[in-house]
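Why does residue order matter? Because the sequence determines the fold. Keep that principle in mind as you read this record.
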Amino acid sequence: MEVAPRYNPRPMSGQHQRLPLEVDPIRLATREEHLQGTIPLKQMKRLINALSSKEGEVYIDVEFSVDINRVVILAGEIKTETKLICQRCMKEMDLPIALDFQLAFVRSEAEMERLPEGYEATLIDNTTMMLSDIIEDEILLALPPIPKHLDDSCSSDAITEAWNSQQTPEPNTESVERENPFDILASLKTDK
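Structure:
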């Protein structure tokens, strides 16, 4: 079994440590590990499906610990810049995300029910988890269900243009001669 490298809790300014792909939350919590670094957005497949660009990275600063109730905790902050399509004007928009989060790791639903109020439970199936999956879940929860610019950021021209591009033009009824379905009956009547 490979042992995860020891992490420097306070990297030098401007430098980020290399983050592990997989983490063992229980082991890292008993050692009170602090992780700080970046994860490329393109590693988060579910997230980039919701975004208009996969360029960029997610900055994380997290700490694993065990609280007084013996609950394994992951707490910290996530920062990233995402690009989404505004559903009002259909133009690309920037959405900065900066969130603080706190997760409690549990092994069963019974443990989940015993958690003190205020904990966001995460069920552990194995001893290790993908760090990017944990971070990706938090970002996905922070995305708006219907992304849109602030009211004053969407121009009415852009909204009208987007609306018109989705509409099919009505045929000009003046230039189209419509056939009367009863003309056939009238012709039968006159043939007699």
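The radius of gyration is 28 Å.
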